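Example S7 (structure tokens).
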């Protein structure tokens, strides 16, 4: 099978190859800002490196064959958290297989947030989250911390695997000060985390997260936005806490609860692991939340003033006839990807837990200026054909029960990308389908990139949804693209990072390698699965595989 499927009727011109913007010095949260568009600014970013060799029994790095690697830091055995860089430090979530703290040897299972010095990769401190006694239903073994923190000045906020929102001092105890109310002298050594406050969502709100609590928080002034991860129990059928909040806002300085929302309610399909976004859209501040029911919600970040949410709009990201079936065998999906905001539009893909395998997916571009139910369709029943019916969890429209769907005159869908019969043969081939995705889009110069879980890397027109090209990586992709310096980076489960030229023209983005089109700068072996998303800060490329975090730079001769 040819790795390249060219579907554009005509090639578009490339974008300009230079940028006058100031270089991005820090990347202080997942995707850099509340808009969640992973597009920093840098020059001369690396396209050629070798990570060296490793002793996979001890984790020891052999740098003798490494090239263009500033440093490598050992993580745990499974790393899904995306790295952030702020204040001269790199922060990343993983598990405890690295055994950084003497009181927690490597065989003790923890969720760990690690902090390293960006100059040399020196370990600075660790926050340790002991596993919940309820086990995999709430806190899956060996999964560690699966989110990225938010770092602003002298404070850091993140969500633990135990369902807690925690505020830390980014210095840990290395500054010799205890910034919080925790006075346990036994655990205030310089390589321990300094906890300022804790909000326990399980205890305070009755949340019951499914498998893992994982949300990369963002903020709006003093307001912290958090997905609670409320979900099903181990049966994958029962919802223990349908009235528990799915989305909350906290006071960033004190941890005080400001407002809650439970819109997904009893319609949660599985778990809720998307992260919130924020921007001012159409003059209105909007907090965007991808719900576990497959709907996208927008709220006023200030709430209703009485402890509740203030809904602006909601959007069903699944066709009304799609159906949820246990184990991923159906066509209805929840939302794991983070909504991205670009040029005052919202972009989001649907997907499922990677353990559910492959399936049909959908990518949407949404106009956020409309209000109310802005789904593409509305559901009705023949008994009262003029009154929309409430949403149903398993299948919104069941024809055997007299249900049907009509186009919504208030739809905010600007375009929808799912299947394209590009060769006009009347069939949808593997390369002609957008599959389920855990990943988030990245957009620059109106060119959008997204990887799906089936290993296809899609390039689209961000304004029309027209497909420019698709590349088959032949490996599942969990992470999201990085666009920087007119290059596009994407990692995969086989441990390769493919590097394309940033272009809508496939003949510019890629090159001919003996009759096969491949990424222009090739694909680099990271020696282990890459589940995370690459970032750039101050010209240094940071990529973590399952076991190590690498700082990569062009060192020259």
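Recovered sequence:
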């Amino acid at each position: 099978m040819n790795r390249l499927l060219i579907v554009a009727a005509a090639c578009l011109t490339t974008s300009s190859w230079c940028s006058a913007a100031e270089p991005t010095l820090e990347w202080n949260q997942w995707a850099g800002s509340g808009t969640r568009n992973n597009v920093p600014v840098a020059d001369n970013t690396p396209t050629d490196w070798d990570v060296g060799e490793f002793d996979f029994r001890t984790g020891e790095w052999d740098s003798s064959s490494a090239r263009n690697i500033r440093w490598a830091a050992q993580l745990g055995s499974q790393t899904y958290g995306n790295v952030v860089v702020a204040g001269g430090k790199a922060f990343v979530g993983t598990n405890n297989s690295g055994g950084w703290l003497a009181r927690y040897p490597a065989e003790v299972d923890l969720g760990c947030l690690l902090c390293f010095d960006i100059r040399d990769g020196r370990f600075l401190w660790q926050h340790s989250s002991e596993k919940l006694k309820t086990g995999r239903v709430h806190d899956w073994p060996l999964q560690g911390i699966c989110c990225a923190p938010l770092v602003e000045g002298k404070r850091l906020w993140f969500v633990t695997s135990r369902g807690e929102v925690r505020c830390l001092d980014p210095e840990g105890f290395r500054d010799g000060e205890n910034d919080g109310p925790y006075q346990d002298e036994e655990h205030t050594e310089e390589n321990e985390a300094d906890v300022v406050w804790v909000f326990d969502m399980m205890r305070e709100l009755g949340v019951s997260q499914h498998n893992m609590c994982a949300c990369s928080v963002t903020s709006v002034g003093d307001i912290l936005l958090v997905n609670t991860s409320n979900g099903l129990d181990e049966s994958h059928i029962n919802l223990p806490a349908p009235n528990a909040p799915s989305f909350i806002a906290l006071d960033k300085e004190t941890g005080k609860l400001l407002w809650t929302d439970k819109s997904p309610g009893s319609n949660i399909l599985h778990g809720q692991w998307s992260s919130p976004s924020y921007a001012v859209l159409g003059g209105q501040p909007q907090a965007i939340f991808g719900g576990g029911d497959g709907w996208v919600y927008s709220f006023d970040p200030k709430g209703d003033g009485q402890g509740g949410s203030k809904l602006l709009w909601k959007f069903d990201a699944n066709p009304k006839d799609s159906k949820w079936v246990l184990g991923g065998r159906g066509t209805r999906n929840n939302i794991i990807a983070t909504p991205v905001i670009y040029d005052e539009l919202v972009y989001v893909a649907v997907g499922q837990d990677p353990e559910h395998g492959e399936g049909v997916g959908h990518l949407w571009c949404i106009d956020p200026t409309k209000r109310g139910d802005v789904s593409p369709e509305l559901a009705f029943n023949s008994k009262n054909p003029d009154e929309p019916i409430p949403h149903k969890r398993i299948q919104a429209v069941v024809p055997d029960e007299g249900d049907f769907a009509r186009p919504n005159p208030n739809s905010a869908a600007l375009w929808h990308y799912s299947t394209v019969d590009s060769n006009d043969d009347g069939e949808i081939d593997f390369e002609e389908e957008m599959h389920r995705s855990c990943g988030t889009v990245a957009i620059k110069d109106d060119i959008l990139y997204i990887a799906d879980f089936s290993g296809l890397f899609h390039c689209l027109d961000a304004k029309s949804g027209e497909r420019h090209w698709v590349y088959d990586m032949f490996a599942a992709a969990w992470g999201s693209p990085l666009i920087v310096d007119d290059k596009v980076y994407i990692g995969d489960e086989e441990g390769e990072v493919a590097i394309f030229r940033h272009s809508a023209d496939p003949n510019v983005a890629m090159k001919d390698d003996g009759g096969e089109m491949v990424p222009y700068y090739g694909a680099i072996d990271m020696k282990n699965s890459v589940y995370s998303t690459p970032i750039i800060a101050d010209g240094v490329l940071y990529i973590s595989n399952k076991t190590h975090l690498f700082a990569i730079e062009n060192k020259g001769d």
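Notes on this example. The chain has a mean pLDDT of 93.
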